[in-house]
Amino acid sequence: MKITNRKKIVLLTAVILTLAFFSCVSTAAPSSIEGSYSGILPCADCEGIQTRIRLEGNGTYILQARYLGKSTELFEEAGRFTINSQNILTLEGLDGKPALPRYVVGADTLTQLDMEGNPITGSLADNYILKRE
């Protein structure tokens, strides 16, 4: 079977259009990750940080954290969130500044990244995952 120049052009055009389409599509729209995610994250000087993040379809969030074994106080933060093309979730406080840490959006999970935005490695890595409620 001989591939003509016309077939090559059609094929190349199809490939380019497909790549262009997928490069513009967000992999996790705010409405697709809407919900609550919770877990107990490691803590250097307490039993753990009971954490809950509620993501709304309109791009807003509420984060609640309680330091177990240290205080009964519930810390709460609200703001907006964004998700980039690498599925990195960034929380932005009401002051407009990005809050740390950031998270990788997975299938029904948010996995916390370190302060430089890198995956957490080592024996405790699995303890940095918040699961959808």
Structure description:
By secondary structure, the protein is α+β, with helices and mostly antiparallel strands. It has a single domain, classed as Lipocalin (Beta Barrel), CATH 2.40.128.640. The protein contains 1 helix and 8 strands. It has one helix at 5-24, and strands at residues 35-41, 48-55, 60-68, 74-83, 88-93, 98-106, 109-112, 129-132. An 8-stranded antiparallel β-barrel has the order 1-2-3-4-5-6-7-8. The longest helix is centred in the first third of the chain and has 20 residues, at 5-24. It is globular, with a radius of gyration of 20 Å. 12% of the residues are buried.
Mean pLDDT: 83
Shape: globular
Please summarize the sheet with the most strands. Answer: 8 strands, antiparallel, barrel
- How many H/I helical runs? 1
Contiguous runs where pLDDT drops below 50 for at least 5 residues: 10-27
Structural class: alpha+beta
Oligomeric description of these chains: single chain
Helix percent band: 10-25%
Structural domains: how many: 1
Would you state the CATH class?
Answer: Mainly Beta
| Strand runs, count | 8
The CATH architecture name reads: Beta Barrel
Helices and strands, in N-to-C order? HEEEEEEEE
The end-to-end distance, rounded to whole angstroms, is: 55 Å
- How much beta, percentage-wise? 35-45%
Radius of gyration: 20 Å
> Widest sheet: strand order?
1-2-3-4-5-6-7-8
* CATH fold node name: Lipocalin
